Fold these 3 entries.
Entry 1:
Amino acid sequence: KTNLIVNYLPQNMTQEELKSLFGSIGEIESCKLVRDKITGQSLGYGFVNYVEPKDAEKAINTLNGLRLQTKTIKVSYARPSSASIRDANLYVSGLPKTMTQKELEQLFSQYGRIITSRILVDQVTGVSRGVGFIRFDKRIEAEEAIKGLNGQKPPGATEPITVKFANNPSQKTSQAILSQLYHSPSRRYPAPLAQQAQRFRFPPMTIDGMTSLAGINIPGHAGTGWCIFVYNLAPDADESILWQMFGPFGAVTNVKVIRDFNTNKCKGFGFVTMTNYDEAAMAIASLNGYRLGDRVLQVSFKTNKTHK
């Protein structure tokens, strides 16, 4: 009972600041601000481990709900990872555009203890996209919420909502990428609509003068799902970053980073296959123009896909 997790930290808060804030309560054994492995950006949460359990309890009572800049931090006991709590993150779509995060929590709280919740909003207009995420304390609670709410109409809604597991391989990172996506001022590029209609052309000087994708075989996309093209990845990009970026939007069946045969470095692009068209379109709208490290990504439907 000495280890705490601190959520909703301001993006620019450093590990030293976190340590001095919590060190004012009592002696700290260790403190870690979690950062994105690739970009180095804060993921907005961290862990503080006290020497004495009473100091951890006091920190919860004193600092939980504290306002820091525009954020209200959440301080709670960190739970050891176990099967009962893994994969308790839900993806909710079809929400009324007027629904607030608080109303979303009220709707779901009847099924169990909610750890975090989020409604995605359009970066430019600030209007809800009708999509949200709810993370429960335990997977069984998330399962009950799916049973109880999937296909139901919430109060005041005209359409039924869809509730399912957000099948992302590394939830902490994907949640973090989402928080980075939806709260970071660095994303100044309003996402253009997916260029489905026009054939996507590479800028002339890209990819070692390679002019077409001929000869590249994307396993697992034959007629299954929607293939998304991701361009301007860094040379050290790997499959995990694609899983983490696209996983929160819905079911991803396959990801592939195209590598140079000799150096095994990423050639600057990759592919993601998603089963559901709406989720794929949402991922494209959200991630096209997204700044990853020092690169701005181009994300669009892969165009030789025969549309159903």
Entry 2:
Amino acid sequence: QAYLSYSNVAALTHLAAKPGWEITRTLDDIKIWTHEEGDVMSFKVEMQVKIPSYQAFSLLSNFVFRQQWDKHFLTCEVLQAVSEEEKIYYVTSPPTTGHKPRDFVILVSQRQPCKPCEPYTVAVRSVTLRAVPPSPEFSRSEILCAGFQIHRNSSSSCTVCYFNQVTSGVMPYLAANLAGSSKSIEDTALECIKFLE
């Protein structure tokens, strides 16, 4: 378990530090970046938010709030509080045309910065729990690496970066074209900013 938590945070930190991110869209308070490597595509959504970084961290690290702003989260419940910094959640997503609704079992690891220049981190990855086997009603899906890094800008503002790494298998859900998917990412980012502020 300790290894899983460590590798969860390390994977997100590694993804964030990768060279070769390409910016695909810029709006007032949102920038969308992509990174492609083989059949793995990663997204980074950078949001400027007018609240202190610790407050954004507290709101974003509790995934039960996620339904309030992310329409991809239909339900979200805590299955297990492993420690103060780690929780395992069960999440369901609404069905997309022609597909069954999806479900996820995810480990969410949260870390406060050790130094002032470091970001707050909320890392997410799929895990397997014997107690929650795949069910025929849902298509069990996997999150390779996702999460938030929250950087302090000032005492009352921060930059929230959301990362998500997907394999080509998940791409159809994100819409056949990137324009469509960046629109959906954009809408979700706007909802996130509205929720935080």
Entry 3:
Amino acid sequence: GEALEVNREVNCVTDFIHGCEDQLQKLKKQKEKGLLYGIPISIKDHINCKGHISSGGMVKFLGQVKKEDSVIVQVLKHQGGIPFVKTNIPQTMINYDCSNLIFGQTLNPLNHQKTPGGSSGGEGALIAGGGSILGIGSDVAGSIRLPSSFCGLCGLKPTGNRISPPGCSDRPFVPTVMGMLGPMARDVDSLALCMKALLCQEMFRLDPTVPPIPFDEEVKFRVAPV
């Protein structure tokens, strides 16, 4: 309900992921509860979810319904998370604004005269507006960090190849800097929990190219003083 309300105000959601309630009922029957048990998670538009498109803001991808969840979505579900919406991006995702010809302009919930930033702008707007508590964005040159800054959130671009990258819509170019999927939330603890959940044996099993290094619990306490 909150996501719908925020979307009405700032136009940040591109799709609602069907099967959420079925997944929750299935989770309730499982004995082992994952680290993200029952948490609704928003997903950036270009990350593949089974039965949905990954447009990247481009008309050419509108007819391509994905047949499989990306690795990161599979791992989120394995940990009890519930991907429930896909969020808006700028066309081609190389832009610090958040608009495209398919879904239109996303606004900053803190000030509707401003942009939420990009390219994970839909994520920034939805989380800042109170419609999601945890989201997955991606970052090549600031696409998690900029909307996090513009919307007053916390975001993390992990080290290259730390999280499985496959399962995203094709780009019309090859960036020279490695893009990474990463979490966005309102506080650092949520980012740490998400990273701990993602860096699990299921991730390493599904994508053997990811180094099997678990999350370091102490890493967030080893920030150098400014």
